[in-house]
Each structure stands twice: as C-alpha cells, then as structure tokens.
Amino acid sequence: MPVAPYISDCMASSSFIRKMFEEGIQMKAQFGADKVYDFSIGNPDLEPPEKVKRLLSSLSQSADRGMHAYMPNAGYPKTREAMAAKVSREQGVPVDFSHIIMGTGAAGAMNAVLKAVLSPDNEVIVPSPFFPEYTHYVRNHGGVLKTVQTKSDFSLDTEAIRAALNGKTACVIINSPNNPTGKIYSRQDIANLARVLADHESKTGRTVTLIADEPYREVVYDKREVSPIFPLWPASVIVTSFAKNLSLPGERIGFTAVNPACTDARSMVDAIIFSTRILGFVNAPATFQRVVAECWNEPVDYSSYERRRNSLTSILNAAGIVYAEPEGAFYLFCRVPPRKDGSGGTTDSQTGDEGAFCEHLKKYRILGVPGKGFGKPGWFRLAYCVSQSSIEASRESFIEACSQW
Amino acid sequence: MPVAPYISDCMASSSFIRKMFEEGIQMKAQFGADKVYDFSIGNPDLEPPEKVKRLLSSLSQSADRGMHAYMPNAGYPKTREAMAAKVSREQGVPVDFSHIIMGTGAAGAMNAVLKAVLSPDNEVIVPSPFFPEYTHYVRNHGGVLKTVQTKSDFSLDTEAIRAALNGKTACVIINSPNNPTGKIYSRQDIANLARVLADHESKTGRTVTLIADEPYREVVYDKREVSPIFPLWPASVIVTSFAKNLSLPGERIGFTAVNPACTDARSMVDAIIFSTRILGFVNAPATFQRVVAECWNEPVDYSSYERRRNSLTSILNAAGIVYAEPEGAFYLFCRVPPRKDGSGGTTDSQTGDEGAFCEHLKKYRILGVPGKGFGKPGWFRLAYCVSQSSIEASRESFIEACSQW
Q1: Which of A47, A65, A140 sits opposite B65 (nearest CB)?
Q2: Which B residues 212-241 touch A at CB under 8 Å?
Q3: Of A161, B103, B276, B396, which has the fewest CB atoms closer than 10 Å, so is most exposed?
C-alpha cells in the first residue's frame, strides 16, 4: 500500500521534537522515569486548574440533552462569547462572538486560517528561530515558508521583513512569547512591523495578513506583557489554545479571533469556519468547549515555571552552557558549548554541531532538541515545563556531559 | 484581509447540509423547536450510553497526573488496544494496537489517510451517491474525486469501477452503510471490487488502496451485517468514529485501522501518524480517547431508529414520496414527487428539480437536503435521527406540502 512520496520524504527529515519525546518515553521505561531528564517537548508539567475537574464532574451529571452532539462549525455561541471577552481584554478593542471561531488546538486553528488565506505558491514570512511545524502547516495548503532571521537578541528585524515582502506574500506569522527562544516581541516591534506592512500595501495594493500565534501569552516572567496586535494592524488574526496556559494540550482546544477592524472581517470569519469544516476538524471538541467557556480566566500561578527557569539556568551556568534569557514560555534556547579543547562551540562567528551535542547529552539521559529544525543550527532547545525535582536531579548529568564534551 | 479565491469559490457552492442545519437552528428560534421538522443532518437524537457519563465522572475524580497532556500522536496505547479488539472482531482477522491510529472523528481520520496516500492529480474513485464532503477531503491533498454511479438499487457497479481505474488512481472510498442511501454493500460486492483491484494490479503493477468509511457500521436493520474488507483486499484501511453509534459527533473521536495483511503496513501506519500530526490534529482528544477505550462495545439499542424509519416511511407513503428502503444508517433517500399536474417528478427516465422541492418543503417547515451535492439530482435526503414526536408531527406538513406541489 504505497505512501505518497512527498510524505515519505518529509518523514525522513521529520520532527526531532516528537522523535525525542517518543524516545524519552522508551528511555523512561528502560532506566526509570526519574533517571531520564526529558527536556524535549512543551508538555506542561503543571496540572490544569482544579476548576477543570469540577466542571467535568458537573458536565457529567448534567441532564441536558445533546451535550456531545454537533453544534455549528464555529462552536457554541456561549463559548465564542467567552473567548471574545478574553480577546477584548487582551487586545484593548471590542471583539464580539461573531469574530471567534473555535478550533482544534492552536495547530488546528492555524491550519484552518492558512487554508482560508493561501493560494498556491503564496509565501508566508516567519521570523526565525521558529516553531518547525509551521513548515508543514504552510505547505499543507500550497504555500511556501520564507524565514527571516531575527536580530541577535531574537527581537524582530522589521527591515529584513520589509526586504522579504513581495507580490506573493500572503501572510506573516509571529509567535510571541516565542518558541524556541522565549522572546516577547515588544509593542514597538509590532508597530514597526505594521508600518512595514502598511508601506507594502500602499506601494503594491496588497494586504498582508498578520497571524499572531499566541499559546504562550499568559506564560510570562518579570511582569512582562505581550503586545496586542489588533490596534496596530487591521488585517490580523490571533490563533491560540489552552494547551499551555491551562495545561490541556491533549484535549485540542483553541480558537481563532479575527480583527473586527479589518474591512472584510465577515468573509474571513466565514472562510475560516468553512476551512475548519472541510479540513475534517468539523468543530472543536464539544466538552472542552464547555470547559474553557468557564475556565478561560481561571487564575494560574506560573511562578513555578519561573523557579524552574531559574534552577535550570543555574545548572547551565555551572555547566558552562550559554543561553538566551527567556521572557516567556518555558524554553531555554542554548548555544552548543565549546569542546574540552576549546574548539567547536557556537559563537557569533561560528556554528557548533548541535546534532552531535544532543546525541552526546543523551548518553547522560538528557533530552534536548537540536536547533536546526527551528532554523538555528548551533543551538539547542530545552523545555523546562518538567518537574522541579527532575531539573535538580539533572545537575550532575549536565556538568558531567559538558566536562566530557 | 483577502480570502483565497479557491475558498471563496468553494463557499459559493457549499454544503447544503450545513446550510440547512444552521437555517434549522434559526427557524427553531423563530417558530419554536417543535414546529420545525429538521431532517437536515446526521446529528443523532439518541443520547450516548449512560456509561459515558459514569466514565466522565470517574475521570474527573481521578488523581492521575497528566490526564490532559500530550500523548504519542497515534493515541494512548490502551485505547489503541481496545480499538484493535473491536476491529479484530468485526473483520475476523487479528489486528493489534500497532495498526491503529486514533483520529479526530472519521473526518479527521479520513483527511490524515488521504494526506498519507495522495500525490498531486491522483484520482480517488467514489461510488455515487456519496457523502459530499469527500470532494473537499480529496482536494485538500491535491487529489481529484472521480464518481462512479452505483446500480439502480445503489449497490456497487464494480464493472463501472473497473472502467474508471487508470494509472492515476490512488484509492477507492466506500461508505457502507451508505450516506445518503442507507445501502449496505454486500460481501459479494466487496469481493467483486477486490477482484477488479487485483486485476488492475496485475495488469499495471499499481496497488489501489481501498478506504472503508464505516461510521454507520453498527446502525443496521433487520439483523443485516456489514461485510469485512480486510480478508478481501490487503491494501485497505478502515476509517471510522463514535459519532453515530455512540452519539458523540461533537467530541471528534474516531480512528483508522490499517490492514496488517498489506505488505508495507508499518510505513502506512507511520505515514498516517505523521499526517495526523502535520495537519494540526496532533492527537485525538485525550478525554474521549479514555472514554471510548471503555465504551466501544457498550450495547446500544438502535431499534428506535428502525421505528423512526418505519414512521417516516409510512408518512412518505401517505404523501406519495418514493424512497430507497434503507438497510442501515438513518437516512431516507427520496425521489422528487411529481407535481399536481403529474409533471416534473423523478423517474428512471427523468430528473425532478430537487432544489425547488426542498425550497417548497421549507414553507412547511420541513428541512431536507437536495441530492445534487450527493451526486444524484432529482433526489433529496431526509435524516431521521430526530425525535419520534417530531417525525409524527411532520405528517400533516408532508401531506400538505405534496398536495400543494
């Protein structure tokens, strides 16, 4: 039974993140879960708020009929209203339920948006380093991903984006706080980007859609805030989920919000609803639509992620690994350290071998993800949404691994 | 914010089923739910088994950590094992968990399979009448849908399928019990189809994948059985869900089973897992994976659908509407009746105007779906998975509508 050659080719060079995650499950079975330091995947270690359990319990006792039936493809009106309240608060502009389309996680929502927007050979600009699944999501719908390097501090290089825009550009995807760098793009950065898109529009007559992928919006440190985009660029949508902030990644619940200020918001909403249907998502899972309608603003204490960040950075400091200080999310993006003889580390002028270093770490039962897939060879990513005890226990392994590198 | 022209075009000629369903919601708000006879959509009126509630309740009280976290893209091993037991029993051949990929409903599973199988311009053969979403599902992945009419009793015309096969054919999709006709393809029909595919393979060296879309497998009448396909054609997969048999369509839970007898089952499983990931499904919703692992063989009494079928057919008989007697599923596929003056009805030699007739029915607050989208102009579909009382209440409206046609 033949597999499509395109899929076979993709699989050959496929996601290191998932490979490491699944390898981690096997290593834990072999060595014991507490002996494997699995920093491979953004699978939040915090449990969902207690209210999720209470809601599930009360939903299970409801006498209402049709709790698990089809509803309109866009989702329950009540859930869409709750999401509109969330987005209105975050964006500082009024958004109502008609601008919300419930989605199957941020990944499902992103695919529905790209399907609605892309024509064959359209280009999608993504600041790099970037979440590697975007490559597939864009190609799924006939588009071409075009990466543009960020500045050395991983902030947006809006002039480089200006240079990358052309007649084929359909959208720009930004992901802030960023996976893998933890960078939050400043309001000034977003305003500059909007200026670049406005210049492009007045020069060419072409409107570029800005897609903000925001699953980490709430997970920020040092009281930082994530800039709104709706007041800054009308042709914009927000794609997000409750995977990271409420620790519900397995339930596939998220949504898209379309900027009411764009001139043809209604047809864009309709197109995303249509795409949600024809891609086979049909609708976001019913029960968790009801859960997030009640839980979206449940307070969550992310300070433990900050403590874990601090613990892991102190270990990396001791081991001699240099990293970018994350402002949000739960990833540390690190340079490959120099070898014992001083050669081979990643610096501003040279690129270390992150594949070899990640293989080396595995010998010490440490799982990290090589940066090449994120568009940044010479670096690797550690996801620290794991238990504090696992981080502490990894100290000697990191130090030993680096001393033997 | 520009919508892709392809999507705008599709939307202009989009699903009557969903349009009618959403129109029905509005009409119910306007006239009262009991005054609208909504036969538009396969949204089961039966409630899920009580065990679903008990499981949700006990899951909500579980002290286990990570109940809502990521798991491997293929799903929980325990759930995959349960599905393997189900498929082994139905197909009469041993299937183990490694041949199962959990999916986001049958629609999600079907998209993942088509993504794994199709190369650009590949053809997919579908016996017609057919579920109209297949058109989109095939196009999503660069394929071309090629319909082949069934015989006058809606059984497979395997010689017509033989004639439609060519070097571009990648797969054949069969849907039994069929939506919209309620037809169950006999074991002999499937065996004949397998023979046609085998002849094609020996002549051209090309293996055509048979995809059986089986969400209605359990919903059958008069003790009929749905034929297995795994013993008959090795290059085959089954796509299904718990939307119709357990009344969970809103939860988006289903799976794909790959025939262990095909020569490269492992690579096909891997390709479907990969497609599930990159299309943005990522994994089937976690909680309902746990629910169906325990509920898949919960007995459900479908006799009420049989009673509803009998009630609705007696009404149609009284109104003078001719239909195909369904063997399974919960749809009646009907001919447009002749007008008062005897003209315009659908017969073997002429095609009535099903669009006009469905519009006419709407005046009597009856919602049905025109057959054109199913590949069969002159016919219309009534989904009778609605309450018995609603069916009974529709009697006078049907009779009045037909007498005024």
Answers
A1: A47
A2: 234-237
A3: B396
CA distances B76 to B8, B60, B83, Å, are 38, 18, 11
Question: What residues are paired with A213 via a beta bridge?
Answer: A175, A239
Q: Helix (H, G, I), strand (E, B), or coil: what is residue B285?
A: coil
- Closest CA–CA distance from residue A34 to any residue of chain B (Å): 15
Which pLDDT score, from 0 to 100, does residue A82 have?
A: 98
- At B119 the pLDDT is 96
Bin A164: left if φ > 0, else alpha if -120 < ψ < 50, else beta: alpha
Residue whose tokens read 């095939």 = B138
Rounded CA separation B97/B85 (Å): 8
Residues 20-49 of A with CB under 8 A from B: 21-22, 25, 41, 43-44, 47-48
Measured CA to CA, the distance from residue A368 to residue B398 in angstroms comes to 66
B138 interfaces chain A, CB cutoff of 8 Å: no
By the CB < 8 Å criterion, does B63 face chain A? no
Query: Is B288's CB within 8 Å of A283's CB?
Result: no
Q: Is A342 on the interface with B (CB under 8 A)?
A: no
Dig out the tokens for B31 from the structure.
């006239």
Q: Which token pair is A315?
A: 């270990």
- Residue B277 contacts A, CB cutoff 8 Å: yes
Residue B393 has φ and ψ, to the nearest 5°, of: -65, -20
Domains and CATH numbers, chain A: 5-47+301-403 (3.90.1150.10), 70-295 (3.40.640.10)
Q: Tell which residue, A195, A204, A136, has the closest CA to residue A170.
A: A204
B116 touches A at CB < 8 Å: yes
Q: For chain A (length 405 residues), average pLDDT per consecutive 10?
A: 88 74 87 92 91 95 93 97 98 97 98 97 97 96 97 97 98 98 97 98 97 97 95 98 96 98 94 97 98 96 94 97 96 96 92 95 95 95 95 97 96
Burial track A337-353 (b if 16+ CB lie within 10 A, e otherwise): bbbeeeebbbeeeebbb
Beta pairing partners, A237: A211, A258
Q: Contact A71/B250, CB-based, under 8 Å?
A: yes
B57–A53 CB contact, under 8 Å: no
Residue B118 touches partner A, C-beta closer than 8 Å: yes
pLDDT in tens, B153-197: 999 999 999 999 999 999 999 999 999 999 999 999 999 999 999
What is the dihedral sign for C-alpha A115, A117, A122, A126?
Answer: negative
Alpha-carbon A15 to chain mean position: 14
Decide if B361 contacts B337 (C-beta within 8 A).
no
- Chain A residues lying within 8 Å of B259, measured CB to CB: 1
pLDDT value at position A15? 64
Provide the whole-model pTM: 0.96
Residue B297 touches partner A, C-beta closer than 8 Å: no
Determine the straight-line distance between the first and last CA of chain A, rounded to whole angstroms. Answer: 45
Q: Give the separation between CA A48 and CA B66, rounded to whole angstroms.
A: 9
Pairwise CB contact (< 8 Å): B7 & A275: yes
* Dihedral over alpha carbons A292, A296, A299, A302 (to 10 degrees): 90
3-state secondary structure of B219: coil
Give the DSSP H or E segment for A245.
Answer: none
Number of Cβ atoms within 10 Å of the Cβ of A95? 24
Whether A285 sits inside 8 A of B48 (CB atoms) is: no
- A78 is written with which tokens? 């009540």
Q: A325: which DSSP letter?
A: P
CA torsion angle for A28, A32, A33, A34 (degrees, to 10)?
Answer: -140
CB neighbours of residue A296 within 10 Å: 16
CA distances in angstroms from B277 to A14, A25, A29, A373, B74, listed in the order given: 11, 18, 24, 16, 9
* Any A CB within 8 A of B167 CB: no
